[in-house]
């Protein structure tokens, strides 16, 4: 199997550790995969397999993005899928025009390539748990404290399913400092 890739924002370790601590307090047993703190991120664009050998070009094109750094706020816990048997439990983020602008610039910078974005609406989130494990469905009632962090960079990651960390930076892009 060829490697898969995505473009994303790595969550600062202090915030990722807090999210992990909160999640542990829930004693969550409903999901097969709990995202380790070192792998927590916000996906800007999932690329998947590089079927057209364009990752080298993507690395160069992404370096042209001009975006100031900004802050994001984790504001709650939400789910994807059936609310009683959710596929994913995630930390949600307050709306951010600057995050939306960065995601749009990522899309626009890669328009000349054959990489195609996921057609689903961009919902910025930090996955905490995925892959429903089965058992008795329940309506999860999780809460989390608001947390703010600065976004000063984004990265192109390669997914290494059998390694730790699972998501490995292969290129990093620093945002202009304007905080």
Could you name the key traits of this structure?
9 strands; 19% helix; 4-stranded antiparallel sheet; 179 residues; alpha+beta; 5-stranded antiparallel sheet
**Widest beta sheet: strand line-up:** 2-6-5-4-7
Helix content: 10-25%
Please state the structural category.
Answer: alpha+beta
String of helices and strands = EHEEHEEHEEEE
Rg on CA atoms, Å: 17 Å
Beta fraction: 35-45%
Low-confidence stretches: none
The number of strands is 9
- Report the biggest beta sheet as strand number plus sense, adding barrel if it closes: 5 strands, antiparallel
Our count of helices gives 3
Gap between N and C termini = 41 Å
Name the shape in a single word: globular
Describe, in plain words, how this protein is organized in 3D.
- The chain is of the alpha+beta class and 179 residues long.
- It is 19% helix and 36% strand.
- Strand 8 and strand 9 form a beta hairpin.
- It is globular.
- The protein starts with a strand and ends in a 5-residue tail after the last strand.
List strands and helices in order, with pairings.
Layout lengths: L3 E7 L2 H13 L5 E4 L6 E9 L5 H8 L7 E11 L7 E6 L3 H13 L15 E8 L14 E5 L1 E7 L7 E8 L5
Antiparallel strand pairs: 1-3, 1-8, 2-6, 4-5, 4-7, 5-6, 8-9
């Amino acid at each position: 199997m060829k490697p898969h890739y995505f473009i994303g924002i790595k969550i600062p370790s202090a915030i990722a550790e807090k999210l992990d601590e909160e999640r542990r307090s829930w004693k969550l047993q409903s999901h097969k995969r709990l995202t380790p703190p070192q792998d927590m991120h916000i996906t800007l664009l999932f690329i998947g397999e590089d079927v057209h050998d364009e990752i080298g070009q993507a690395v160069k094109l992404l370096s042209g993005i001009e975006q100031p750094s900004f802050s994001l706020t984790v504001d709650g816990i939400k789910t994807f899928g059936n609310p009683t048997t959710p596929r994913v439990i995630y930390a949600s983020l307050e709306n951010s025009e600057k995050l939306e602008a960065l995601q749009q610039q990522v899309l626009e910078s890669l328009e000349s390539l054959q990489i195609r974005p996921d057609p689903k609406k961009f919902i910025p989130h930090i996955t905490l748990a995925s892959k429903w494990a089965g058992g008795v469905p329940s309506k999860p009632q999780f809460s989390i404290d608001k947390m703010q962090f600065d976004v000063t960079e984004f990265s192109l990651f390669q997914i290494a399913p059998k390694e730790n960390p699972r998501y490995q930076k292969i290129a990093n892009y620093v945002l202009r400092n304007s905080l």
